C-alpha cells in the first residue's frame, strides 16, 4: 500500500510514518522543511503542491492530511487572536487538506478503494464548545465539514473520506500532560483508517473508534 502523510516530521505524523513503514508499506512523508526521508511541502503553496504531485508515484491508496497548526493556544479574548493568526491557521488547517486532496486526485483515482483521512479534533465539534482557542476550534470544525463534503463528492468514484480525532496526545502541540502517547493514538488511528470504506465515508471518529458529535 502506498500512503502519503503530510506533517510527518514529528508527533502523530512521524509515528504514523514509522508504524506504516514497520508494517512494510511504502510511505511518502512531508514537512515544511523536508528532512531525512521527507519531501519539503507547504500545503498552502499551490506551486509546491504541483511540484510535489509530480513527484508522487501513482497510485496513492491512502492520503493522511495531518499537517496542522495550533497558534492560538492560551491566547486571551481581550488581546489575542490576531487577524494574521486567523489567516495562517485557517490556511494550513482547512485550505491545506483541500489543496492536497485536489493535487493528488489523479493518484487517488488510480487506486481501487482509495481513502483520505483528515486529522481533525474533538475541539471542532460544535456540540463541545467550552470556550477559548477560537481559531483552532473553528479551523477543525471546518476541517470536519470539508471531510464530509468531500465524502459526498468522491463516493461515486469509490474514494472514502473520514475525519479523525487523534486524542489529546503527548506531542509538542498537546504537551507533556496530555492523556495518551503518540503510539497509542496512532495504533488506534490506523485501525480506524483500515475500517474506513464507502459505507462509512463522511465519518467523524475518535482514535478509539467512538463516533463524535458534529
UniProtKB/TrEMBL annotation:
<protein>
    <submittedName>
        <fullName>NAD(P)-dependent dehydrogenase, short-chain alcohol dehydrogenase family</fullName>
    </submittedName>
</protein>
<dbReference type="GO" id="GO:0016616">
    <property type="term" value="F:oxidoreductase activity, acting on the CH-OH group of donors, NAD or NADP as acceptor"/>
</dbReference>
<dbReference type="InterPro" id="IPR036291">
    <property type="entry name" value="NAD(P)-bd_dom_sf"/>
</dbReference>
<dbReference type="Pfam" id="PF00106">
    <property type="entry name" value="adh_short"/>
</dbReference>
<dbReference type="InterPro" id="IPR052184">
    <property type="entry name" value="SDR_enzymes"/>
</dbReference>
<comment type="similarity">
    <text>Belongs to the short-chain dehydrogenases/reductases (SDR) family.</text>
</comment>
<dbReference type="InterPro" id="IPR002347">
    <property type="entry name" value="SDR_fam"/>
</dbReference>
